[in-house]
């Protein structure tokens, strides 16, 4: 989630190889059969009628960034970002870094993916964007890779496909480890929440945990499990218990984001953060016999101007 002047931007970034639309869609039955809007929905209704199926079987598509986030955050701009990263496509030959840099350039043009934010640390062109990130919600991000990547690697080898992206997701991949380490050191004081799956994914007779809790976590950051497999981490419906866990985190980031970003920008500009309001003041009358020590007082003022700063005065006994 980013903040721009007078705007809140909630940006949903799909995973590698994911569909730009259906990665966010959950299909669930609806009792009321709404009037079909798209041509595809009209055809689907006709097929169901020809098969003798009633309206109870009609499924509705819940695209949660559009159908759940937009109504919940009326003053926010909600967007999804898609990029070509389907390793099964013979025409796709990109790396994680290329995907990340493309995301940053698109966001800068229209005014964040962990790799993109690591790049933003080192490139001044993206500095304002980096400082404007109020919080990040990760949904099963494989910071330490995934054992399931080996199956994709086998398929890529059989189909003679480019394996650049799929190799980057292998468990204990050195490049992925370096990326995760750089990200943590650059953003360990930011508001980040990591969600992970609590169920195995089923592929026919095989079951596997695509991303383990350990791989989906960052040191020192809160972890919350969702009662679903990896595919369900980014699909929510109406009255969804998993969405009920994610929504408060986004609401908190939106509520606190403005002050967080404002203080971060002030700190970057060399200005102190906004100090908290004092709970009480003890009145002191000025001493008419006080002798000003201008140099010392100026030094104390500079040391005490930063929030929560502490300064010790040391002198010989009896000097007051």
Could you explain the architecture of this structure?
The strands form four sheets. A three-stranded mixed sheet has the order 1-2-5. The longest helix is centred in the last third of the chain and has 28 residues, at about 240-270. The protein is about 35% helix and about 15% strand. The chain is elongated. It has ten helices and ten strands. It has about 325 residues and is α/β, with parallel strands linked by helices.
Q: What is the approximate shape?
A: elongated
Category from helices, strands and their pairing: alpha/beta
Percent helix: 25-40%
- N-to-C CA distance: 52 Å
Number of helices: 10
Mean pLDDT: 78
List how many beta strands DSSP finds.
Answer: 10
Unreliable stretches (pLDDT < 50, length at least 5) are none
Sheet of most strands? 3 strands, mixed
The ordered H/E elements are EEEHEHEHHHEHHHEEEEHH
Strand content: 5-15%
- Give the strand line-up of the largest sheet: 1-2-5
Rg: 26 Å
> What oligomeric state do the depicted chains represent?
single chain
């Amino acid at each position: 989630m980013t903040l721009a002047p007078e705007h809140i931007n909630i940006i949903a970034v799909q995973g590698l190889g994911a569909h730009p639309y259906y990665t966010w869609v959950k299909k669930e039955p609806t009792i009321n059969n709404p009037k079909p809007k798209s041509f595809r929905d009209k055809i689907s209704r006709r097929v169901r009628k020809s098969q003798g199926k009633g309206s109870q079987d009609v499924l509705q598509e819940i695209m949660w960034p559009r159908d759940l986030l937009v109504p919940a955050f009326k003053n926010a701009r909600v967007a999804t970002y898609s990029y070509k990263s389907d390793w099964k496509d013979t025409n796709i030959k990109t790396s994680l870094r290329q995907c990340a840099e493309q995301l940053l350039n698109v966001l800068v043009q229209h005014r964040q993916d962990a790799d993109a934010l690591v790049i933003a640390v080192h490139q001044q062109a993206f500095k304002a964007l980096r400082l404007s990130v109020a919080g990040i919600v990760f949904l099963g991000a494989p910071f330490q890779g995934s054992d399931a990547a080996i199956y994709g690697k086998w398929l890529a080898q059989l189909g003679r496909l480019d394996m650049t992206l799929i190799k980057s997701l292998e468990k204990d991949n050195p490049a992925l480890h370096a990326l995760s380490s750089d990200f943590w050191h650059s953003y360990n004081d930011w508001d980040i929440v990591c969600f992970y799956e609590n169920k195995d994914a089923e592929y026919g007779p095989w079951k596997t945990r695509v991303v383990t809790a350990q791989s989906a976590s960052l040191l020192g950051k809160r972890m919350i499990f969702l009662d679903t497999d990896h595919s369900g981490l980014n699909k929510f419906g109406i009255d969804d218990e998993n969405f009920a866990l994610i929504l408060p985190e986004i609401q908190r980031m939106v509520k606190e984001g403005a002050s967080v970003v404002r203080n971060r920008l002030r700190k970057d500009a060399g200005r102190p953060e906004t100090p908290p309001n004092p709970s009480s003041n003890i009145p002191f009358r000025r001493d008419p016999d006080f002798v000003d020590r201008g140099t010392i007082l100026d030094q104390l003022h500079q040391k005490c101007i930063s929030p929560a700063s502490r300064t010790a005065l040391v002198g010989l006994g009896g000097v007051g």
